[in-house]
């Protein structure tokens, strides 16, 4: 580690809360599907800010929009209407499923889920919820009640009140039917479970959730925080199923990298929330709104949903062609892809980063998750797949190069 690396990394480690585990690398810039660390080493980024950089890092339209807006106005509360906010809302409602034309603006996916919870309670007058095993809904105390994984909830004990939450096995229609009652306010589910192992829902499960919620007077809320904005090959994953929910939680890719969140809903759901029943200081700020306008327009203009559909199919085809006994299954939707291994994935994720210059994510202990920007090229996909194949086979290219160099030096000395 150089002195420069030590300076920045040590400062972050010294003053950070240490809640988040740190990689031993300092990233300094990005463009498209590539990021660079401070030594100048490049990495193909299949993390994309946990699925934020769908349109690529530093998309020129978003960069320009941020610069222009920063010179005009940075903050304005939602009680005071703003031109850029109105422009963003028009763009957003223009791409959401028909009927979801009311929006609560916030700053993150967790905030969007908190809003969804409160709107569901006021819309139905009920307090019980149905959520999914292996689902992930956020880490604030309210959203954490919907998150299945015990490791996220247990440190906070009874402060996480999930006594009114019924968890069902993702995809199990019989459990879903038993869980939804006349007391259910909403069913909350991800069309594709991300943290839970990149598991797409079956059409039958989504359709039955829609039918049952309508029958029982409950809401269907789809968590599109990671699946939204072209990630799965549609603008929203709900479109794959032909289902219109009562609400969707949105965030991540919506503003091209700027923090943003939203709960979009029907007018009936929105109108049942009392005035002042929810709010936030930074939600709908002009800077995020400007970035969001640019990002959504770029998605539409550049056909990014179609790109994700075509590149995702190609990516999964290449991954499935890998002949490795370590692979159990390749699954996904669009460019949201998981490779389930028969052993722990962490060593392979580490090797991809350090030996191959490819950044990936874990999703459950066995799954390697690939969430590249939609702008990734086929050539870059080929590079990622070849790197993954090498680490699965145990080949260490850096060690190989060092061995080759040592052998060449030895041969050179012998000929002297």
TrEMBL record:
GO CC annotation: cytoplasm
Amino-acid biosynthesis in keyword set: yes
Subcellular location per the Swiss-Prot or TrEMBL entry: Cytoplasm
CDD domains attached to this UniProt entry: OAT_like (cd00610)
Major place of residence: cytoplasm
One Gene Ontology term of the molecular function aspect: pyridoxal phosphate binding
Cofactor descriptive note: Binds 1 pyridoxal phosphate per subunit.
PTM sites of type N6-(pyridoxal phosphate)lysine: 252
Enzyme Commission code: 2.6.1.118
Sorted UniProt keywords: Amino-acid biosynthesis, Aminotransferase, Cytoplasm, Lysine biosynthesis, Pyridoxal phosphate, Transferase
Metabolic or biological pathway: Amino-acid biosynthesis; L-lysine biosynthesis via AAA pathway; L-lysine from L-alpha-aminoadipate (Thermus route): step 4/5
Keyword Hydrolase annotated: no
Cofactor(s) of this protein: pyridoxal 5'-phosphate
Binding of pyridoxal 5'-phosphate, residues: 109-110, 136, 223-226, 281
Source domain of life: Bacteria
Subunit organization: Homodimer.
NCBIfam families: argD
Functional note: Catalyzes the transfer of the amino group of L-glutamate to [LysW]-aminoadipate 6-semialdehyde, generating [LysW]-gamma-L-lysine.
Protein name, UniProt field: [LysW]-aminoadipate semialdehyde transaminase
Organism in which the protein naturally occurs: Deinococcus xianganensis
Lineage, broadest ranks: Bacteria, Thermotogati, Deinococcota, Deinococci, Deinococcales
């Amino acid at each position: 580690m150089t002195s420069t690396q030590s300076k920045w990394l040590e400062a972050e480690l010294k003053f950070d809360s240490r809640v988040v585990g740190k990689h031993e690398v300092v990233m300094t810039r990005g463009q498209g599907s590539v990021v660079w660390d401070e030594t100048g080493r490049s990495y193909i980024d299949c993390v994309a800010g946990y699925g934020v950089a769908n349109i690529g890092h530093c998309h020129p339209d978003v960069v320009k929009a941020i610069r222009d807006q920063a010179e005009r106005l940075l903050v304005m509360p939602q009680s005071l209407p703003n031109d850029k906010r109105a422009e963003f809302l028009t763009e957003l409602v223009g791409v959401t499923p028909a009927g979801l034309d009311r929006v609560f603006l916030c700053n993150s996916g967790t905030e969007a889920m908190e809003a969804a919870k409160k709107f569901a309670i006021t819309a139905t007058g009920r307090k019980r919820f149905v959520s999914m095993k292996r689902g992930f809904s956020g880490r604030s105390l309210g959203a954490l009640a919907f998150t299945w994984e015990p490791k996220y909830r247990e440190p906070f004990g009874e402060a996480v009140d999930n006594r009114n939450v019924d968890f069902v096995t993702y995809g199990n229609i019989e459990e879903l039917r038993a869980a939804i009652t006349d007391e259910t306010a909403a069913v909350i589910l991800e069309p594709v479970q991300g943290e839970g192992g990149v598991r797409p829902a079956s059409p039958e499960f989504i359709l039955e959730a829609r039918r049952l919620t309508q029958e029982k007077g409950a809401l269907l809320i789809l968590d599109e925080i990671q699946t939204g904005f072209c990630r799965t090959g549609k603008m929203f994953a709900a479109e794959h199923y032909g289902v219109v929910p009562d609400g969707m939680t949105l965030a991540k890719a919506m503003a091209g990298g700027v923090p943003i969140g939203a709960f979009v809903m029907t007018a009936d759901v929105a109108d049942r929330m009392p005035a002042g029943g929810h709010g936030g200081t930074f939600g709908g700020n002009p800077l995020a709104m400007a970035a969001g306008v640019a990002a959504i327009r770029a998605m539409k203009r550049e056909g990014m949903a179609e790109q994700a559909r075509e590149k995702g199919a190609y990516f999964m085809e290449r991954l499935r062609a890998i002949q490795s006994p370590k692979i159990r299954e390749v699954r996904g939707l669009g460019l949201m892809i998981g490779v389930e291994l028969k052993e722990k994935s962490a060593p392979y994720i580490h090797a991809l980063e350090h030996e191959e210059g490819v950044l990936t994510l874990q999703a459950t202990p066995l799954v390697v998750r690939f969430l590249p920007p939609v702008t990734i090229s086929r050539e870059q996909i080929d590079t990622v797949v070849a790197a993954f194949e090498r680490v699965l086979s145990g080949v260490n290219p850096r060690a190989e190069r060092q061995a080759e160099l040592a052998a060449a030096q030895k041969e050179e000395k012998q000929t002297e």
